[in-house]
Write a structure and sequence with these properties.
This protein has one domain. A hairpin with a 6-residue loop joins strand 1 and strand 2. It is an all-alpha fold and about 500 residues long. The longest helix is centred in the first third of the chain and has 35 residues. Helix 5 packs antiparallel against helix 15 and helix 13 packs parallel to helix 15. Strands 1-2 form a two-stranded antiparallel ribbon. The chain has 25 helices and two strands. It is about 75% helix and about 0% strand. The chain starts with a helix and ends with a helix.
């Protein structure tokens, strides 16, 4: 009851006109930032961090600035789905998995269904995460702290295993795609020795590694555009978009078919979000993989499955709140964006850690209350502006294709201010187009390049801890079961082959 009273008081403070105005403004800014390729929540929060000193000067406290930045974070999580669905360009790395089924739905003239599903799944995922955060913050912080290097690597292995054990795709091609992504993830400097590796043709641009956003925009922006031009079968559908209120309400009613993806994404996203160094991007990809793996018809995924939109969107919004938990309770950022928020808290004179809830309740509970308010504001604005988002799809593809190309170029350059990355993005786009022609799945490669930089140091640090003994992944109480499940999933296709052969012999 004490927690509930603190929460009600925090929500009341967050609803005060000035704080509410900050939340609404932050959400709108976040939606724009999230929808623009190459920006994302990190860029938005970092760019607007200096502006918070003005807000602090007006309010005299750190509550207002933090509400503003947290609202931007929330808005960006919602906004990433907009360009992913309407243009096929991920607004941020967290929205990459949304393109897998969101874009096919848009191509089929059902963009409103995808946008509604994304908004509602985001709302439910964030709500579930907020409730978990409010009720179990200290306990969950302790659970997150118990995840060492072996546990996090086992979790990453499980993510790869979900793609291998799906059964819906060509398994050898899936494994090749994962391995190709892992190779790309190792480009740059060795994390232990500091020696350069896989610096192709001695080009200095490779020394910073393959940046994920460069890959994502290339694969799902340029690659998708080239595929559409090549097939030309989508052109007639691009302009047939129903923007009536009745159509949107019908899409809301269809959302009940996405309950499984939403549930998986909400729970898994928060769990992955609270793990330091994980974040929303791995959470969304893992949620998509598990949802596909447990589906009755996994082959429908990648072709416009509504659960394929709901799962990653619920996960990335759930993870965004989850990532706030280790930042506030342990002083450990759970994502790049929360690292910027942590810096802001330190600048404002706050000390994140276990005593924050005790020593600074006047800051903590209004901030938690603003999570709930920002979530309601974000879903409301998203649903109201769906006709505006759909307007982009009413343009002829002859106009849309150059727009996608320009946005991809500008977004990539804006993110890193490096022309090498722009050329690399174009190269990835051409490569993705060729792989699609050869019927290679792209999602496993995307997953690998996201998780590779996380999994590699955790693997090597775990082996250093155990003097090279791989049993550390089986003997630890948390890592052991996760590793065993991952191995079973990896071997699942082999079990299916053996079973089919035995059935054939029996017949």
């Amino acid at each position: 009851m004490e927690i509930l009273s603190h929460l009600i008081e925090g929500i009341w403070i967050a609803l005060q006109p000035f704080n509410l105005g900050l939340a609404v403004t932050g959400v709108i800014v976040g939606l724009f930032v999230g929808a623009m390729p190459g920006l994302g929540s990190v860029n938005g929060v970092a760019i607007l961090l200096p502006f918070t000193f003005v807000i602090q000067g007006i309010t005299g406290t750190a509550t207002g600035p933090m509400i503003f930045l947290a609202s931007i974070y929330y808005g960006a999580m919602y906004g990433g789905a907009i360009s992913s669905i309407t243009l096929g360009i991920p607004g941020a790395s967290t929205a990459v998995a949304t393109t897998f089924d969101g874009r096919p739905l848009a191509i089929a003239g059902k963009a409103h269904v995808a946008l509604v599903a994304a908004a509602l799944a985001s709302f439910i995922g964030a709500t579930v995460s907020n409730v978990f955060f409010t009720a179990f913050a200290p306990l969950l912080a302790g659970v997150a702290l118990s995840f060492g290097n072996p546990e996090i690597f086992a979790l990453m292995l499980l993510a790869f295993a979900t793609f291998v054990g799906l059964g819906g795709d060509d398994i050898p091609k899936t494994i090749f795609s994962i391995c190709f992504g892992l190779v790309l993830a190792t480009v740059g400097f060795d994390i232990i020795s500091g020696e350069p590796r896989l610096v192709f043709f001695d080009l200095t641009g490779f020394t910073h590694g393959i940046r994920f956003l460069v890959l994502a925009i290339g694969v799902y922006g340029i690659g998708e555009m080239m595929w559409t031009i090549n097939t030309s079968r989508y052109g007639s559908n691009m302009s047939k978009v129903d923007v009536t209120f009745a159509a949107i309400w019908d899409a809301v009613k269809q959302f009940k078919g996405a309950w499984r993806g939403t549930a998986i994404g909400s729970a898994l996203g928060f769990f992955v979000g609270i793990l330091p160094a994980a974040g929303a991007t791995p959470g969304s990809l893992m949620a998509y993989g598990i949802t596909k793996m447990t589906a009755k018809e996994p082959k429908s995924y990648g072709k416009g499955a509504i659960n394929g939109v709901a799962a990653p969107e619920a996960a990335n919004n759930s993870a965004s709140t989850g990532a706030m938990l280790p930042m506030m309770t342990l002083g450990i950022p759970g994502s790049p964006t929360t690292a910027v928020l942590l810096a802001g808290m330190v600048i404002w004179g706050l000390q994140p850690g276990p005593l924050l809830f005790t020593n600074q309740p006047d800051f903590v509970w209004p901030l938690i209350g603003s999570f709930y308010i920002s979530n309601v504001v974000a879903v409301t604005i998203n649903l109201l502006f769906i006709p505006v988002f759909l307007w982009m799809l009413r343009m002829p593809f002859t106009i849309l294709a150059p727009l996608i190309f320009v946005l991809s170029l500008v977004g990539t350059y804006a993110a890193y201010m490096d022309m090498f990355d722009v050329w690399l993005m174009v190269l990835f786009g051409v490569g993705a187009f060729l792989l699609r022609i050869l019927d290679y799945p792209l999602a496993p490669a995307v997953l690998a390049i996201v998780l590779g930089p996380i999994a590699e140091p955790k693997l090597r640090q775990s082996l250093l801890l155990s003097d090279g003994d791989f049993s550390i992944f089986f003997t630890r109480p948390i890592a052991g079961p996760i590793t065993v499940i991952a191995i079973i999933l990896i071997l699942l296709p082999l079990f299916k082959v053996i079973r089919d052969k035995l059935k054939a012999r029996a017949a």
